[in-house]
Amino acid sequence: MSNLVKGVILDESELLSASEHGTPTNANDSSFQLRPGASYLLRKLRHSNIRSGISYGPGLSPDKVNVLKRIAMEYSCECFFLHASMDGGVNEITQAWGDVGGIIMYVVQNSKDSMCKLSSNWLITVVGAEVVTAGQNSSMLYVNKLEELPLTICCFNKKATCNNVVVVGYVMKPSREEDFAKRGAFPLYPTPNGLIFLPLTFEIPLSSQLQNVDVVLHKATDEIISIELSNASVSSNRITYTKGMQELQRFMEDHSDFLAIDPLSNIYPVLDRLKIQLILLRLQEQKAKGRHAIRGAHFVKVIDFKDPGLPQRLSDAQLSLPCIVKPQVACGVADSHSMAIVFGTEDFKDLNVPLPAVVQLRSLLQTLVF
Description:
Distance between the termini: 46 Å
Largest sheet: 6 strands, parallel
Number of helices: 10
Order of helices and strands: EEEHEHEHEEEHEHEHEEEHEHEHEEEH
Shape: elongated
Structural class: alpha/beta
Low-confidence stretches: 20-28, 131-136, 364-370
Strand order of the largest sheet: 5-4-1-6-7-8
């Protein structure tokens, strides 16, 4: 594992750019801004199982150094001063990190003079190069954008293991990814059982990422723009995904042997609360002698809260009050979680729950699960 990337040092030249406001007066001044892609990369490295740090050299203003240190604290990485000779900075990093057990990647702009002075066991990665010339210099890599770094690290580490790993590409909204990543779910460094988790980004061509991926783990409902009910149910041709998710969908359709968790067709039932209820009804068919029966909640579909026959329909469905009212569309759009608890039949006429809706008998378990 000594040939794997285990640490990443980001030179300040790749992180900060001066804004149009001029020279800052304090560390919180907006005159120093993160370059495009820098925040994305720092978030991905935070829980990647790869050590990360920010470096800067002599001649930087105290204000800019303070900004770098604040960024390092925000993204749970460290800040290092690299001397002109580089030796002092390298020693400082060694003291802070110890033996990382692998290669340190130094990410720098093409114009940075100090990159040639680094220790030979560092992998210099130059950002802003228009052409990737692998093989010309085994100690240097070239990428166009910072967003390419996770893919670059993944490919380098996979090659270092002689392709003896499975790369899991994943896509979901940042808040969900952050929650999983905090628990160690998405390490970019190979796990003991041979998995590498690669964050897929729609900021670079998806095809170049997917050709290095063995399986895709997605949360497609995070990428839904709108859902229309067709024949009173959710169908694939009524779901509008983001542009990036549409690209992934086309790729999966064009490559039938590509492994995805789950196939998009498998998510359609969970987008529709009525379909979920009908699936749960089938649990009653699984009765076994001597076992407890399991059933879903009593329910009824409503298309008009002012329907004079609604009280009788509730009674016919064995629904007593209070009950809970939910939109039929279960997730993927903003108002799918606009719900209400109704204590009397007269309360239905003033509900703001989107229609069509599903009324369920309210219990704590049913409220949480369904």
